[in-house]
Prior knowledge:
8-stranded antiparallel barrel
Amino acid sequence: MKKQSLVCASILAMAAATSASAADLAARPAFPNTPTPSPAVIALYDWSGFYAGVNGGWGSSHNSWDFLGSIPEGSHDATGGTVGGQIGYRWQFGNTVLGLEGLGNWADLSGSNVSIANPGTTNHTNIDGFGLLTGQIGYSAGNVLLYAKAGAAVVGSTYRITNSAGFLGDADTTRWGGTAGAGLEISLTPNWSAGIEYDHVFMPASDVSFATGLGNDRIRQDFDLVTARLNYKFGWPLASK
């Protein structure tokens, strides 16, 4: 009887010791020297900073001429290519991006129509170049930037009148107006980005004087531009999240 009691007591003691050891092992990490993983760091593009680049594309200008300001001579579209460059600076606040940009382009947008008031003459328009000074507001989705822009425009144009015998007279003008547009830009590398942009340029009606005997015309002008852009951003810091 005593032997049976001793055996039972031994079995109970061993069971208690085994349970305690198992609990102690469960409480200990399997690899006590393994470091705790750090939270993942996600790099986000920051559009802040200076940038400069080139652009090129296509434009179409609508031009209406009125002889002496009141006699319609008709309208024509002046179309062609354009190429130039831009420089600017952007600030990013969260997903909002603000910016300022100056753009200067050479252009060759030309067109003509036979005058309604004087069918013996033809009116020609050529846009030689333009500049845009604009402010931007945009939304950043990582390395994709969607933005709108608006500001001032300056346009250099040449107007010419010809007849069947050839040249009659011309006038060169530099006129100020306004512009509004929108664009999409995508970062390709930490420094390079590419995009596409649309701009509408509108000019106030202006009196243009030609050679003696040709009088003057009031010319109304506006045009649309679609350009591809390539920018280099200086610095291009990354933000962490």
